Every structure is written in C-alpha cells, then in structure tokens.
Amino acid sequence: MRGALRDAFLSALVALGIFGPMVGLVSTSGDHGLSLQVRPIAVAVVVGLIFAGRLLILSWRGGGPRQRNLALAERVARAGKYITPILLLAAIALPFTGSRYYIDLGTLVLTYIMLGWGLNIVVGLAGLLDLGYVAFYAVGAYSYALLAMTFGLGFWTCLPLAGILAALWGVMLGFPVLRLRGDYLAIVTLAFGEIIRIVLTNWVSLTNGPNGISGVPRPTLFGLAFSMDGGPGTFGDFFNIEPAVIQRIIFLYYVILGLALLTNWVSLRLRRLPLGRAWEALREDEVACRSLGINVRNTKLTAFGIGAMFGGFAGAFFATRQGFISPESFTFMESATVLAIVVLGGLGSQLGVALAAIAMIGGLEALRDFLSFLGDQMNSPVFAGIASELPLYRVLIFGIALVVMMVLRPRGLISGRTPSVALTKLKEIAPDLVAESRS
Amino acid sequence: MTALLSLSGVTAFYGAIQALRGIDMTVEQGEIVTLIGANGAGKSTLMMTICGNPRARSGHVVHDGEDITHWPTHTIMRRGIAQAPEGRRIFGRMTVHENLLMGAEVAGRSDIPVLLDQVFTLFPRLKERLSQRGGTLSGGEQQMLAIGRALMSRPTLLLLDEPSLGLAPLVVRQIFGAIRELNRVTGLTVLLVEQNAYQALRLAHRGYVLVNGSITMAGTGAELLARPEIRAAYLEGGHA
Question: What distance in Å separates the CA atoms of residue A152 and residue A145, rounded to the nearest whole number?
C-alpha cells in the first residue's frame, strides 16, 4: 500500500510538471496586449484525478493482469456471435430514429468502417503496411467528381469507374514497392499518399486546386432525384410525398450501409478462396509461400488493387455525400485514422474493425457531447475557464484511451483468427497462446 | 535415360560472396539422394538455387529435360518440384488444415481430398491436429506438416532441407522412416540435405559431400559411410 501511494504521488508530480503550464497558465488578450492568467484549481483537479486514477489502477491490478486478459479474450470471442447480428439490426434501424444528427453520424461511421474493411485486406490479411490509403480514397472521390461534372455521368455509372481507377492506382503503387517490406513499405506508401494530395492541390486546371470542386451531383434512386422542388421525375413526386432533406440523408445512409456490407461480404468470401489464404500465408512467411509455388508478385498486387478499389468506392461516396471535395479532406490524418481503426480492431478481424470505427468516430463525437454537458454542469465561478475548454480535451482523452487499450489488448479488440476452413466446428484460439512467426 | 534433375557447373553468389563453385550432380528418377556437409558448406544454398532463389549465376539446372535455371521460383515449384524448407517455415497462425491447403495451391481442386488422405496415411498425427494452429504443434509435428504441405502439390521431386533440425532422435527416425516409405511405395524421388550424416547416408541410395561450395565426394550411401575421411569428418563422436 505504501508502495502504491508513493507511485501515485510520483505520477501526480509528473502530471503537475506536464499540466502545470498546459492547464494552469492561459494567455488572454486584454487591453494591454496578452496577459497571463493563472488557474490553480484546474491544475489541482487534473493532478488529483491522476493521483486517484493511479491509485485505483495499482489496487485493481492485484489479481494478475495476464489471466484477466485471457478471460476477456475468450469472452469477447464468444460475444462476437451475438454482437454481429445486433450491430447489423441497429444499423438498419438507425434511420427510423428520424434524427438527422444520428443519421449523419452513422453515415460518417459507416464510411470509416468501409475504409477500415478495405484497408484490412491490405494490412490485416496480406500484412502490407499501407500508410497512404487515403490516396485511393482521394482518387475515388476526384474520379467521381470529375467524371460527373465533365461528362455528366451519374453516380451509379461512376461508382464502378471510381473503383476501377483506384484499383489501377493501387496496382501502380504496388509495382515499385513489391520488394519492400515493413518500415520501408510504410514510408513509400506514406509518400505516395502525400504525392496524390499535392498533385491534387497543384493541378489547378484539372482539380481546381485548393479551392476544390463544388456542386458534385447527388446520387439518384433508380433515376429518381432527391430534389427539393418536387418536380416530375423526383423521389417526392414519384411516391407522392412532400420532398424533404431528410429523405436524401436517409438514402445516402443506406447507400453507404450497402457499400460497407458489400466490402465485408467480398472480404469474407475472398478469405475462403485460395487467393485469400495466399494473402494470409504471405503475411506469415513470404519465402515459404514462394516455395509452395505462389506467385508472390501477383498476390501482393491483387491485395493492393482490391484494397484500393474499396477505398475508391468510399471516396466516390464521400464526394457525392459532401457535394464538395478539396485536397484538404485527404490528408495523412485520414490514413492514420483508418489505420488506427484497423490496428485497434485487431488485424484481419471484420467485427473488430467495425467496433473500432464505432468507438473511434462515434466515441470521439460522444465524448464531445459529454464534455460539453459536463462543462455546462460546472458553471460555478470555481471552475471558470475550464468548463468552456473541456470539449477541447476530447482528443487528449481519446489518445489516453487508445494507449490504455493497446496496453490491455496489444493485438487489438478482437485478435483471435477464425480459420478459413474447417471440417468440424470452427474453434477460436486465444491469440495469447500462439507464438507469432516472423521471417 | 536422362536424369530427373541434373546440375552442371552451377555457381551461386550472395552479393560478392561465392557460395557454390561449379556443382555437378544428378538425381535419377526414384532415387533418394542426400547431400551432406558441414555448416556453411552451401547445402541449403544449393537447394534454394534449384528453386531459383538465388538464381544460378552460371551453369545449368535441368529438370525433366527442361532448363529451368532462369525460371522464376513459383513456376519452378509448379513443375512438380516441392520443397520442405529449412526451419520448416510453416504458417504459425493458420491451422494445420489451412497449411496443407496452401501446399495444394498448385494441385487441382478436385484432387485435394485424395492428397489429404495420402498425407494422413503417412502422418496420422496431422489428422488429429487438423484444426490446431501450426504454431502450437511440437517440432516433430511441424516437420511432418512441412513435409505433408510439400506433398500436397503432388510432386515428382521432393526437396527436404534438414528435416532432422532440432528434433529428438526418436522423432528423426520416425520422419526418416516416413521418407523411406514414401520412396518405396510411390517411387517419389527425394533430394535430402542433412547435417545428420549417418542417418542420411543410411537412408539414401546415393550421396554427395559438399565442402566450401564444391562437391568433393560422391558414391552410394554405403560406400560413403565406409570411407574413413567421411567417418573422421562427419561421423566421429558417435552416431545419433
């Protein structure tokens, strides 16, 4: 107990060093330029929280973290069977809440789930670390926007085209990086992502540069447009209902839900084919693959191509939903977020990726609401200053949550691997029991 | 009669370092041929050079009447050559079943059940472990899996790189027994690279001795076992 107290005290001291200046000092612009304001209470709250938290962690650890971890892995694996249908039902039912906020948020989350599933093919299955996945997202978005604006093609015609173009770029990226692995591969893909963004920014005659492209056409439902005038040939006119913005929002939601489910279905099917197995084998041992007569080059290129294709689909959807795209939407931050979703979910796990996307995108949003709410509650003069700032800390809190998460479950939320083929019942084995092979 | 596999004047390099210095050897249809030598003699390199990784810089590798020296690895493996590589290199996170299916990549889909049965007859242990992950198998079982995986491509020539590596003598005997059985029953040609010279020479019809990238001796297994210089260099200190 004494040890725990000492440890907690030291943690509090470190926290004081870090948060003293960060939280305790704030610069405000007064009459005579900037002036420094001191907020001792805010610092005390933060340091106190860390002291208590550290003490709590130390006392909770008593039972041996390893065992608890295993039990958790088993429980998650078993719960997985029920989580999937529940999530699917919830996703289908979401628009019936009628709340525009939730449907918009759901659409955003589903976009990231789809991107996560697409990247999962490259990173999770084939084991090729891709830090430039946003490039394919951008290619898809710009393909759709430019094809639609220049040639007047509709969304449903452009969607496959955007996918094909993105896949083409995936293969083009794949060729030069075939010989690279691990860190080197990551750096080249990172550069590739940046190159695409910079080209989009500077090729003003084609992409309108940093100003972006606005007025990207909206998708139609079998030729029925979602326009507000309710004229002939629109959705409202055909079904004889009052046109409303929410109809288009709901329609877009179901479009991305369908696209995401398509991605999931294709990945699951691919995993059971020799090609998918070859991807996974490639992740484990490239030399062994070659000695079994597998064409390593083609296998890698298909992984890049198919992963990129789904990125392209998601990009086209992004363009049609936003109605406006600019290079700013395709920064490295996007690649990092999608990769974080895949890693956090557990490489290669479809359900894990979905849960991670919900936690990361939806969770960040929920945290904002919660912190604003908390700030409103603390409307006393003691907390003056911190209350209004609380929402700004959401990214910090989120970062801490990610670190904690990776300490507790270093291989992601759902890290067990389901065999792609079985004669009898499928059996999930806790990942902690399996030594990972490294070549 | 032409040999199933013949090498003539094969050299191979790792960068500037020459690993093979003009290898000439043949493997006839239906034979078990072993290649023995000390660490770093180039045994594994020779095995890998047959598979085109690294490629031979000069000389020729001829398989079944066709010069395969400059073929890419995966097309060589599709010609009926299969390898159980050094250190086994099974896919640790994939199940035994999946590992075996990976070996059948080359074979037709309809043949898979037959091939699986053939492997299970040879190594019944693998059938018990079918849904277990490769990484959880014991060393001997992993070696069985590596050989079984190689056999799934219905090879005419099986390359085995140190199947006895890190295994208990009893398990080594089991595995060598299986190789002999395979050769006797199906007439499968085997090229075996081994450190365990005594066991290997007893099993093989013929053997080659590799020293510093060159073949210094060749002969039948019994002949080589009887040679005093072989006894001195590879067999002293008791046989396993």
Answer: 10
